[in-house]
Amino acid sequence: MATSSNRTTAGRMTARPVYIVDGARTPFLKARTGPGPFRPSDLAVHAGQALLARQPFAPDALDEVILGCIMPGPEEANIARVVSLRLGCGDRVPAWTVQRNCATGMQAIDCAAQAIAGGRSELVLAGGSEAMSHAPVLLGADMTRWLAEWAGARAFGERARLLARLRPAHFKPVIALLLGLTDPVVGLSMGQTAEIISRRYGITRAEMDAYAVRSHQRLAAAQAEGRLGEVVPLIDARGEVHDHDDGVRPDSSEARLARLKPFFDREFGNVTPGNSSQITDGAAWLLLASEDAVKAHDLPVLGRLVDTQWAGLDPRQMGFGPVHAAVPLLKRKRLGLDKIDYWEINEAFAGQVLACLRAFADPDYCREELRLRSAMGEIDQERLNVDGGAIALGHPVGSSGARIVLHLLEVLKQRDARRGVAAICIGGGQGGAMLLERS
């Protein structure tokens, strides 16, 4: 364990070390027909209850609860506070909600780490939750205006005139999920940006499908061998038990995936539903602690959060976000790729992950985009997403950033490894990366 953080250098207080002591997540449930059995707050509560029940302190001992969520329901305003109270943290524990698109769960962890490093908090519960199957279906602006006029109309004649103006087009639904997965500035869906960066490196459909098959095979193996100890079961209102990530297809094959048609560029594209992440519901939590809290409660330590980096880039090429975030993080710590034992890079799309691997190894990209003198090098794919990723288990956008951090810590523990990086691309043209270590 690191030494006490109260030392000073040149008269300045050094940041305190931040430890991750435990974590839990729900199974990730694939969205199928209609809303799933759990709202975002339900998912977060189920995972949080299991996590807090095994701690040696009461929930009201927490200093903060920080939860990420992109699309909470209208009855879940400041969803973190709703969840905190349902978890029994009490009135005095503050709770707040964060949002950074696909990295929302990672942002929650970063906020918790800053609070601990700066001395403001000792114990923080942080994570993310998303029920993408509950994304709302909305009415358009014309119908909204019509309803406002209807509410204000009093006389029979006014209402009759309004009824005469009503047209079938007024009832055309607005699918919030599709809007949320489209960049409003450049007008491209996330899948279209994956096509762009895949073409930049000539990544073929066969390569994408092969990567997707491997993701499913790795997750299926991890499930069969019991390597997903962070997953806690869910029980829905009908008494049905959900105890595993149900989007995995152990029988997936390149031949089957080859039959699927491109979805985002139907004429020339290679990105299909089969080599893309799934629309999914799920939640993930991590418990972060200061050194003093670890000692006071005699807490086990999964690992230490060493550093975090956020980066911005062209929204049209947002899939390169993991590279833009990981490179300055590693440079700041004077670490080469060979010093990282395991990687978790969120699998938004197979082509996107493969493009990132090419960019790390491309001297031109590293020089022109990252201002390096040479390429960073190659990442061994045997050390990347070793238990599968979002292509196999899904990408509930509010929680994926927390999930990859939590699972990376599990991988380091199971394989007795020291150091890992979790990285994620972010819709809108950003990237995030976290460096984690075990002693």
Mean pLDDT: 94
Question: What percentage of amino acids are in beta strands?
Answer: 15-25%
* Secondary structural class: alpha+beta
CATH domain topology of one domain? Peroxisomal Thiolase, Chain A, domain 1
Cα(first) to Cα(last) distance is 7 Å
CATH architect. name of one domain: 3-Layer(aba) Sandwich
Give the overall shape, derived from the CA principal axes. globular
Reading off the top of the CATH hierarchy, the class of one domain is best stated as: Alpha Beta
E-strand count: 16
Give the count of helical stretches: 15
Helix content: 25-40%
Q: Please summarize the sheet with the most strands.
A: 10 strands, mixed
Radius of gyration: 23 Å
- Extract low-pLDDT stretches: 1-13
The CATH H-level superfamily of one domain is Thiolase/Chalcone synthase
Your description of this structure?
- The protein starts with 7 loop residues before the first strand and ends with a strand.
- It has a domain at 190-229 and 305-434: 3-Layer(aba) Sandwich (Peroxisomal Thiolase, Chain A, domain 1).
- By secondary structure, the chain is an alpha+beta fold.
- Helix content is 35%, strand content 18%.
- β5 (64-68), α2 and β6 form a beta-alpha-beta unit.
